[in-house]
Amino acid sequence: MIKIAMVEDDTELACVLTQYLKQFNMEVTNFEEPFLALSSLNLHSYDLIILDLSLPGMDGLDLCKEIVKKHDVPIIISSARSDITDKVIALELGADDYLPKPYDPRELEVRVKTILRRFNKNSQTTPELNKKTFEFDEDKKEIRKNGEYVKLTAAEYEVVLLLLKREGFVVSRDEIFENSDLLNSDYDNVGSLAVIINRIRQKIEANPKQPEFLQTIRGMGYKFVQ
Fold this sequence. Notes:
About 45% of the residues lie in helices and about 20% in strands. By secondary structure, it is α/β, with parallel strands linked by helices. It folds into two domains: about 1-120, Response regulator (Rossmann fold, 3-Layer(aba) Sandwich), CATH 3.40.50.2300; about 135-225, Winged helix-like DNA-binding domain superfamily/Winged helix DNA-binding domain (Arc Repressor Mutant, subunit A). The strands form three sheets. Strands 2-1-3-4-5 form a five-stranded parallel sheet, with helices on both faces. Strands 6-7-8 form a three-stranded antiparallel sheet, with helices on one face. The longest helix has 15 residues, at about 105-120. The chain starts with a strand and ends with a strand. Keywords: DNA-binding, Phosphoprotein, Transcription, Transcription regulation, Two-component regulatory system. InterPro entries: CheY-like_superfamily (IPR011006), OmpR/PhoB-type_DNA-bd (IPR001867), Sig_transdc_resp-reg_C-effctor (IPR016032), Sig_transdc_resp-reg_receiver (IPR001789), WalR-like (IPR039420), WH-like_DNA-bd_sf (IPR036388). Pfam families: Response_reg, Trans_reg_C.
């Protein structure tokens, strides 16, 4: 999992970017306050920082300078400030890229991957940018965990496949029934679905009672995370 610290006081934008990057094995922790970000950087390790410039309490350029002084971590400036001087100063201070707002989240994703590949080119601890714990092959009707085939029944496979396709998002029980031919015909109640979920966890989780991947979202449904 690639760990990213974001310093962004626009909570709506931060939420959108966090959800988007999550599907690419990137875990984003957002900080609305610059000083909270600095404190976290002293306590935790991050692979990359996404930094806004217009922040409460401290200008983003000053924050960039503080980060570069104390931490060896790549920085992407994400800012609505269009002054070329800001861009030049940010890059001179040590930022690795400057992305003017507004932008498509897909461009941010590509830039993150590009910078991390370059930054970790000579490192033995290069984060895996695309590799995920679970992968599926619809043609072969296979689910694999860390490259190893997971033996599932047809009904279990349908449930896991649907949740993997919606990875990171909550899928309701009704939606699972609606998207499964086998469950519609063979399992017609929530209790039976719970049994199937439990069987899946027995096969994919290290501790089925405390699932890491197939999570229950109380009152809403299930979510697959990795």
